[in-house]
Design brief:
By secondary structure, the chain is an all-alpha fold. It is built from four helices and no strands.
Length: 204
């Protein structure tokens, strides 16, 4: 049984190289985008988010102070009959403003808390991507280089390999020669004794 390799060209290796290179580029792009998004969210947690809610707390506190001042002014007023006016609406407004300030303070505290926690999560995220980054940065280029060397070796072999012998033609010629020999060997030979006997019978 023939166990030799039938090397025709390096097209298959080059196709594998192209597919591997494309996959490596896709992985690299995905890693870069994921890391960029993670870093961007971390920046928001540490800077933009707290700055936003710090500003909201200040604005809402200013509104609360204005609403409280309006309530005090309303309480100091008197109606035409000498009674204090109703301050139900003003008190509800103050309560809503107080709740709004508390929400802003809560969001600010939560952002500061999650900013610390996110650093731990981000470190785990980076560690999880480390094997894939190693694959993209080291394994894929090494595999591509190996395929290049294999393709070059095949091209070098094919450029120096001897031409193939047409074994079909040789076998056909051999069969033809054997067939001719067999035909010649099967042709009957005339015996001289038989010929003499026939001639004697004829003469009689």
């Amino acid at each position: 049984m023939d166990s030799g390799a039938n090397l025709q060209d390096a097209k298959t290796l080059m196709a594998a190289k192209a597919m591997l290179t494309k996959a490596g580029q896709g992985f690299a792009t995905a890693i870069e985008e994921a890391q960029s998004d993670a870093e961007r969210f971390g920046m928001w947690l540490n800077s933009e988010g707290p700055a936003h809610w710090e500003r909201q707390r200040r604005l809402r506190t200013e509104k609360l102070n204005m609403d409280r001042s309006a309530l005090v002014r309303k309480e100091m007023q008197m109606t035409a009959d000498g009674r204090p006016p109703s301050t139900v609406d003003e008190r509800k407004t103050v309560q809503r403003s107080e709740e709004s300030v508390r929400r802003a303070e809560h969001c600010l505290q939560q952002l500061r808390k999650w900013a610390i926690e996110y650093q731990r999560v981000l470190a785990q995220f980076r560690a999880g991507f480390s094997p894939l980054s190693t694959y993209v940065d080291q394994t894929v280029p090494a595999a591509v280089a190996s395929l290049n060397r294999m393709a070059q070796a095949i091209d070098a072999y094919l450029s120096t390999a001897p031409m193939k012998v047409d074994s079909t033609l040789s076998i056909s010629d051999d069969v033809s020669q054997k067939g001719t020999s067999a035909t010649n060997s099967n042709t009957p030979m005339r015996r001289s004794g038989s010929d003499s006997g026939s001639e004697a019978s004829t003469n009689e």
